[in-house]
Specification:
With 103 residues, this protein is mostly beta strands. It has no helices and eight strands. Strands 1, 2, 3, 4 and 5 form a five-stranded antiparallel beta sheet that branches. Strands 6-7-8 form a three-stranded antiparallel beta sheet, with no helix packed on it.
Length: 103
Amino acid sequence: MWRYRDPGNYYLARVDSLTRNVVVYKVRNGVRTRVSFVAPHAIPANSWSILKVSARGDRFQVYLDHRRILQGFDRTFGSAGKVGLWTVADSVTYFDDFRVYPR
């Protein structure tokens, strides 16, 4: 997640190996809505993948294993915020080598 303000306001990139897709959501006042198209993409289960999110101004780009999967624009949260990791309760997810490069 990025541009995190509080538990009810942030962006998140969801990578789902079950539905085989990548999508970006915004959570605004606790309501999650999609801000990008759903990008079909095979996500291998039980293996490592590299996820990268680039956000500059109102533009965001999502990369998986160094390949840009989707990009879009949204002006809801225009200024810097916190970043973090997000997962759902029924997932088994491991994170390693988390990096942030502020500009």
